[in-house]
Amino acid sequence: MSDLKISAYRVFVPDVTASLPFYRDLLGLPVRAAADDGGFAVLDAGIMLVLEPVGDEPDLTQRFTGVSFEVADMDAAYQELRGKGVEFTDAPHTAEWGGTLAHFKDPGGNTLTIVEYPKH
C-alpha cells in the first residue's frame, strides 16, 4: 500500500453557501465543484478541500481542524489575509521546530493555520 496519499480533507461548516466565499474569495482557493443546494463544495488546495454541512451529525464545527496552508512569506500572507478581513486568533509565532504559524477562523468558527516552513 505504498501508493497511499491524502486526496481530500473534509471541513464541516454550519452553512456551505455562507462559507464558500471565505475559502474562494478571501483564501483564493479555486472551486472544483459545488452543489447548487449548498450540499457541498470542493476546492483545490493542493488536495481537495471539501466543505460539508454539519446536518444532523454532532457539531463538528468551531474546532481546530489541523488544516495548514503553506505560505512562502508569512508576513506578506498574514497582512494580506488580515487586510481581507480574516480573523486571526494569534499573531505569527515561531514554533520550537522552526516553522512560523498563525491561526485563523473560518465563518463557521473552525480554526485553520498558515505556516511558513523553515528554509534550509
UniProtKB/TrEMBL annotation:
Keywords: Metal-binding. GO terms for molecular function: metal ion binding; methylmalonyl-CoA epimerase activity. GO terms for biological process: L-methylmalonyl-CoA metabolic process. The keyword Metal-binding applies. PROSITE patterns: VOC (PS51819). Coiled coil: none annotated. InterPro entries: Glyas_Bleomycin-R_OHBP_Dase, Glyas_Fos-R_dOase_dom, MMCE/EMCE_epimerase, VOC_core. It comes from Candidatus Phaeomarinibacter ectocarpi. This is VOC domain-containing protein. Residues 5-117 form the VOC domain. It comes from the Bacteria. SUPFAM superfamilies: Glyoxalase/Bleomycin resistance protein/Dihydroxybiphenyl dioxygenase.
